[in-house]
Amino acid sequence: MRREESRKSLRQWFARILDLVVPERQIVLRTEGRVSYVRLGRRVQLSIISCLFALGAWATFTSVSFFVHEYLVSVKEARHAEIVAANDLRFKRMMADKNVQIATAHRLYGSLLDEMKEYDRVYTEFTDEILDNQKTILGLFDKNSTLQSNLETVKNRLNITEDKRIKVVAERARLMRKLARTETELSAVTNRNFALSENLGSVEMDLQTAMAERDHALNEGKRMDAMIERLETRLVALQESEQEAVQRVAERTGSSISNVEKVIKMTGLRIEDLLASNAKAAASGQGGPFVAASPDGLPADDIKADLANLGSQLERWDALRDIMERMPLATPLRYYYITSRFGKRRDPINRKWAMHYGIDMGSTFKRATAYATAPGVVTQVGWKGRYGKMVEVDHGGGLKTRYGHLHKTLVKKGQKVKFNDKVGQIGNTGRSTGPHLHYEIVYKKKSIDPTKFIKAGRHVFQE
Known about the structure:
Elements: H1 2-21, E1 25-31, E2 34-40, H2 42-195, H3 200-266, H4 271-277, H5 301-325, E3 337-340, E4 343-346, E5 353-356, E6 359-362, E7 369-371, E8 376-383, E9 389-394, E10 399-409, E11 416-417, E12 422-426, E13 437-443, E14 446-448, H6 450-462
Antiparallel strand pairs: 1-2, 3-6, 4-5, 6-13, 7-12, 8-9, 8-11, 9-10, 10-12, 10-13, 13-14
Helix pairs in contact: 2-3, 3-5
């Protein structure tokens, strides 16, 4: 009991001392006629006094430390002079050992250079292989242009043959008219034979002459008929050969169209949507009543129908080729490995389930270069929220590619880029756990798995 009473009295005595030393205070603040009070309680004042005391103690400690440091520095300098003399001898001994180590390092550096040369050779071979595949694709495009040129030649030859047939028909009609005139003259000679019976010898001579002319006209007519028949036979054979050529061109064009459509289907895009968005504006400003075309009965009707079908196929091929030229089928990095795929995943930072709208690509090189996977126009460059430093390229038709978390961007907004142009270097900017490239493909504001495009691109290069 006595202890508790002594403790209680001690606490009361300490509280009275605090009331005398640290009484409760108020700060009056007057602003535009309004008065407000800030209450400083005992605990607040004790906290402020403690902070001031700590600040003073820190200043005192710093000053003492400074003077002690100066004294120690002077002592160390004196000892340093003594140590330098002793270290000279040890340094000379160490130099001999260092020379041996330097020679060993030179040998290791030479072997490292040999390995780097081997890596450069492998990189050059891989780059040449990619360029050869690109040349193969361009060769297919040139081959299509050659087929179109051959088609135009076939059309011209068909027109020339048609003109010859028209000339033969006209020549035959002219000979028929000449034959009719000859028969009319023969009838006139016969009538004149009866009228001029006195001059029979002259009439017989005239009759023989007329008969000779008639026979000559008949023979000429038969020769022309045979010539017309031969020309019609040649026209049919020519039509068949040209029709076979058109069919071969159509088959090759259809095969090319099938291959391209197969590649586009591998990306997950709808071909008809791409063709609709790629329609040319030149088709506008047309109209008129519909009048169905009827065949004219000429031998070239079949080949004309084949040519019309081939023309529609070539139009589809041109549209698909234009789409393929803007399709991002290549990989943005030369050497890479996938660190995170497209789709549902656990977030690398908070470990919660989230949706990943691209693929993350790591590289063994610290500042690996990212390349444009198709030609287009740069629409965004710079910092883009969680993407960090980002580049967005618009390839037309609603198709865009994005390159995120870059260390450095190498293009400007509005710049036109070609396939394989440099757009930036991979980095660790934005919401990222390490250096990598976030590669994303967007079609009409909807993200698509870039892995499908890369697989489709490998299919193209293999062919």
